[in-house]
Design brief:
Blueprint lengths: L1 E4 L4 H13 L5 E3 L10 H6 L7 E3 L5 E3 L1 H11 L9 H30 L12 H22 L12 H12 L12 H11 L7
Parallel strand pairs: 1-2
Antiparallel strand pairs: 1-3, 3-4
Helix pairs in contact: 1-3, 1-6, 4-5, 4-6, 5-7
This protein binds glutathione.
The site of glutathione has 12 residues, from helix 1.
């Protein structure tokens, strides 16, 4: 089994944090996105979408999509239950993880990919207007998240879950995207510091 990874990229980081929370270690290979190695023939044969992360199982099965990889390991190692326990919790975790992906992670990615000069090669075409369109969406969603986090410790409830991982990585990704966290979002800041104190987030 091997995980194709890149230390500086946010989607592979989600998977690494998840694995660290589960206490799972496995062989990894770095695919240098800075050098565009995701476009190589060797990596394209593994993932024709040329994106990271990708997990190759011993029988040759390839699993891409960060959350699909997390699901695979969750089924093998159910504790801690990062996708929630029981129908109600699982639905809330799914809802919040998707909210984090669609309303935070993706808009931050669009700002980074379409406005950062270092992304010219990777993001073709770069559409600066699309980057600018997403900037206020990030701030709008963070305001909603702040109101939610006033009433509970973690994004989907009282337990740390995959939705916290997605949100935490998205917020760290704001830095290279040159997006600033507003001072007044005290609950988001408190939650981000709390999650950042977990050893797994160093992964
Ligand atoms: N939906 C995919 C997104 C994967 C993705 O976009 N990965 C980025 C790194 S964070 C990538 O490989 N980018 C390379 C490129 O755009 O060429 C997932 O969740 O894994």
């Amino acid at each position: 089994m091997k995980l194709y990874d890149f230390a500086r990229a946010p989607n592979p980081r989600r998977t690494r944090i998840f694995l660290a929370e589960k206490g799972v270690t496995l062989p990894t290979e770095q695919v240098d996105l800075g050098a565009m190695h995701q476009k190589s023939a060797a990596y394209t044969a593994i993932n024709p979408l040329q994106r990271l992360p990708a997990l190759v199982l011993d029988d040759g099965t390839v699993i891409t999509e960060s959350i699909a990889i997390c699901r695979y390991f969750d089924a093998l190692h159910p504790e801690p239950p990062l996708f929630g326990r029981g129908a109600r919790e699982a639905a809330l975790v799914e809802m919040w993880n998707r909210r984090m992906e669609l309303n935070l992670f993706m808009p931050v990615s669009f700002v980074f990919r379409h406005l950062h000069p270092a992304m010219k090669e990777m993001q073709k075409p770069q559409v600066p207007e699309w980057g600018e369109t997403n900037r206020p969406l990030v701030l709008e969603f963070l305001g909603l998240l702040d109101r939610e986090l006033a009433n509970r410790r973690f994004v989907a409830g009282d337990m740390f879950t995959v939705a916290d991982i997605t949100g935490f990585v998205a917020i760290d990704f704001m830095k290279p995207a040159k997006l600033v966290m507003p001072e007044q979002l005290t609950y988001v800041r408190r939650w981000h510091a709390d999650v950042g104190a977990r050893p797994s987030t160093a992964a």
